[in-house]
Write a structure and sequence with these properties.
Layout: H1 6-57, E1 62-66, E2 70-75, H2 85-92, E3 97-99, E4 109-118, E5 121-130, H3 132-180, H4 198-247, H5 252-283, E6 292-295, H6 296-313, E7 318-320, E8 327-330, H7 332-349, E9 354-361, E10 364-370, H8 403-413, E11 417-422, E12 428-435
Parallel strand pairs: 7-9
Antiparallel strand pairs: 1-2, 2-5, 3-4, 4-5, 6-8, 9-10, 10-12, 11-12
Helix pairs in contact: 1-3, 4-5, 5-8, 6-7, 7-8
């Protein structure tokens, strides 16, 4: 059944429903007509029974007297009757009693009976009505229903198929229109139509999905293009160094310099590959995390120890404010990596000392990294955590533009978030909000 087209399934369901409705309607009509005919027969018998009782009181006594519509019988005790004593008792009690063919009457006969007290004693009065006309009428009605019901079912099924086809026509048109949309035709959308119905809402939902897909494809294209560019630069530098080293005989110091330069570019490639892998795992929800109870002061101490020599080399310091008692749950290595990226960004693009602080706010722990440089360009702030996102003045300062994006991905893997803002007194404030548990 599920392999059939929807319009055929709808037609079959509609036909089954109509068959049930027609059968129920036919049965109701048949039994209602039968009940009406029975009421008419019973009323006629009651009237004839009253007339026969009046004759019995007048002293008339007769055996069965047959008429076209039935018979009348008035008997004295001990005289035989057309009906058995049990049938007479049931007829007198008001039940419906039918006899097989009686005399010249064709078909079944329904009877009614009563006692009449006369001067000569008790008389039994019996009247009967032939049911041939009633049964013929019901047979004709049944035959008509048997003929009309399939015709009505066929016509209604054809109408149901036409209605389902008309109802699904916009879906077919939408499917054909969607099949014509390709990556070479960006911005194309499905026609929603003026009516605010289910088809319109479906078209609007699909258009929203197309917009999301286009944005995702555009981000992926930009990501691949930027990644290719970032990978090409260190590879080109390595190849240049190696070509120069091999072009003519070199002294040992020159070869050592070439190898050290190649080593630096190799490290840069390795970091870039590692960052890309972490981002890919975060996108798929597969970034492995080990949740431990951590103290913010311990995270700051590790990051401060790792970056202090680099800061001192440029005449700067890394200061960690007291964060005793501030605790959170998370992966120590990943959070240290994220904080390290924030500190690296502050040392690379900021100025002055770098401050680390922690705040316990609204069920989360905020890990802040603050510098005293010029801060972010205002138009760059909304894009600070995008991959390969770099301000114009940062494009020549090294780095692949993945540090903040990686920190945001690690925060999101912890069910947290990343934020950036410019301080009123100058400098940038970048922080991670990590749930405490």
């Amino acid at each position: 059944m599920t392999r059939f087209p929807i319009r055929l399934r709808l037609t079959i369901a509609f036909a089954i429903a109509m068959a049930i409705v027609l059968a129920a309607t036919g049965a109701f009509l048949y039994f209602r007509v039968a009940a009406s005919l029975d009421e008419a027969v019973d009323e006629g018998l009651e009237e004839r029974l009253r007339d026969a009782a009046a004759l019995a009181r007048a002293g008339e006594r007769t055996g069965p007297r047959f008429e076209e519509e039935g018979f009348t019988e008035i008997t004295a005790p001990g005289q035989p009757s057309l009906a058995s004593p049990e049938q007479l008792r049931e007829a007198r009690a008001g039940g419906r009693v039918e006899l097989d063919q009686v005399g010249d009457l064709k078909g079944d006969v329904r009877i009614k009976s009563s006692f009449v007290e006369t001067e000569e004693g008790r008389r039994t009065v019996v009247v009967g009505a032939a049911l041939g006309d009633r049964n013929d009428a019901l047979r004709k009605l049944l035959a008509q229903l048997i003929i009309a019901a399939p015709i009505a079912l066929l016509l209604s099924s054809a109408l149901g198929y036409w209605l389902s086809r008309a109802a699904l026509q916009p879906v077919d048109e939408m499917r054909a229109e969607a099949a014509a949309i390709s990556g070479e035709d960006p911005g194309r959308r499905l026609h929603a139509g003026p009516a605010q119905d289910e088809i319109t809402r479906l078209a609007e939902t699909l258009n929203a999905m197309l917009a999301r897909l286009e944005r995702a494809i555009q981000r992926e294209r930009s990501f691949v293009a930027d990644a290719s560019h970032e990978l090409r630069t260190p590879l080109a530098l390595m190849k240049t160094e190696l070509d120069l080293a091999l072009r003519k005989p070199r002294t040992a110091p020159e070869l050592e310099d070439a190898l050290r330069s190649a080593e630096a570019e190799t490290d840069r490639l390795a970091r870039l590959a590692e960052d890309l892998l972490v981002l890919a795992q975060a996108d798929d929800g597969r970034l492995p995390l080990r949740h431990d109870e951590l103290r913010a002061a311990e995270l700051f101490a590790t990051v401060q120890h790792a970056f202090q020599p680099r800061a001192e080399a440029s005449g700067r310091t890394i200061q960690a404010e007291a964060a005793d008692g501030v605790a959170l749950s998370g992966d120590r290595l990943r959070l240290e990596q994220a904080l390290g990226n924030l500190v690296d960004n502050a040392l690379r693009h900021g100025a002055g000392d770098v401050s680390l602080s922690a705040l316990d706010r609204n069920g989360s722990v905020e890990l802040h990294v603050v510098d005293h440089g010029r801060g972010f360009p205002p138009d760059f702030l909304p894009h600070a955590f995008e991959r390969f996102g770099r301000a114009d003045d940062a494009r020549t300062s090294g780095g692949a533009g993945l540090g903040l994006a990686l920190a945001a991905a690690i925060a999101q893997a912890h069910r947290g978030s990343a934020h950036a803002a410019n301080r009123e007194g100058g400098g940038a404030d970048v922080w991670l909000a990590i749930p405490k548990s």
